Amino acid sequence: MSPNGRSTGLTAFIVTMLALVLVAASLIVGRATAGADPLPTTRSAEAGFARDMQTHHDQAVEMSMIVRDLTDSPEIRLLAYDIATSQSQQAGQMFGWLATWGLPQSSPEPAMTWMHRPVPSGESHVHGAPDTETEVPDAMPGMATRAELDELKSLRGVAAERMFLQLMIAHHKGGVDMADALLDRSDYPVVTDLAGSMAKAQQSEIQLMEDLLAARQ
Q1: Fewest beta carbons within 10 Å, which of 5, 160, 162, 208?
Q2: What contacts 42, CB < 8 A, 6 or more positions away?
Q3: What 3-state DSSP class applies to 211?
């Protein structure tokens, strides 16, 4: 190709990229000026979900790392790796939400309080917190006890695999309950998008783990 041809091609490429940048910039400005929803408050369902689900995910990662050292099963090790990596990434997203919203990572009230407030009525969800709530349980849904984790660490091979699957099935079911509770209480897109995909993925993993557990009975 001649120098003039290369120059013409480069110029066309630069013009095209500038046009794409301008289009992207106009979309961003349009969204920013269209009137975004108010940011969630510190006692909102969105903030409570972000904090509590980080804690919930942290235990799933811990259990996954434990079982990877206790088994030689490729399918269990792959499952554990997938859970650990996906839930670590999601926990990072939720940490980022709180930082973006200007909210503390620690909760000003007991864990799971948001989940036991009444579901908002009407078509619009408020990203704040109703004044009334039911009694808040001491434990998050599906969480393993410290004694159960200690027992898991003491096992090896198929025995460890069985206990891991039992604990993680219960853990995932609790996570799905939390995601569903958020979806009942929020219409904040970035939060509901993750909660919806989380519930779907964990339901699929529950079925897989039930099949793996049945094969080990």
Answers
A1: 5
A2: 103, 104, 107, 108
A3: helix
Q: What are phi and psi of 209, to 5 degrees?
A: -70, -35
Q: How far apart are CA 175 and CA 195, in angstroms?
A: 9
Q: Is the dihedral of CA 56, 62, 65, 67 positive or negative?
A: negative
43-71 core/surface letters (b: 16 or more CB in 10 A; e: else): bbbbbbbbbbbbebbebbbebbebbbebb
* Residue 172 per-residue DSSP state: H
- Provide the 8-state DSSP code for 113: T
How far apart (Å, rounded) are the C-alpha atoms in residues 177 and 115? 9
Whether the pLDDT of residue 122 is over 80: the answer is no
CB 172 within 8 A of CB 205: yes
pLDDT in tens, 29-69: 444 434 467 999 999 999 999 999 999 999 999 999 999 99
Can you tell me the distance from the alpha carbon of 159 to that of 67, in angstroms, rounded to the nearest whole number?
10
d(CA 190, CA 100): 12
88: Cβ contacts below 8 Å, ≥ 6 apart: 57, 61
Q: What distance in Å separates the CA atoms of residue 128 and residue 40, rounded to the nearest whole number?
A: 6
* CA 207 to centroid of chain Cα atoms: 19
pLDDT higher than threshold 50 for residue 82: yes
Whole-angstrom distance, CA of residue 98 vs CA of residue 40 = 9
The average confidence (pLDDT) of the chain is 84
Q: What is the pTM of this model?
A: 0.78
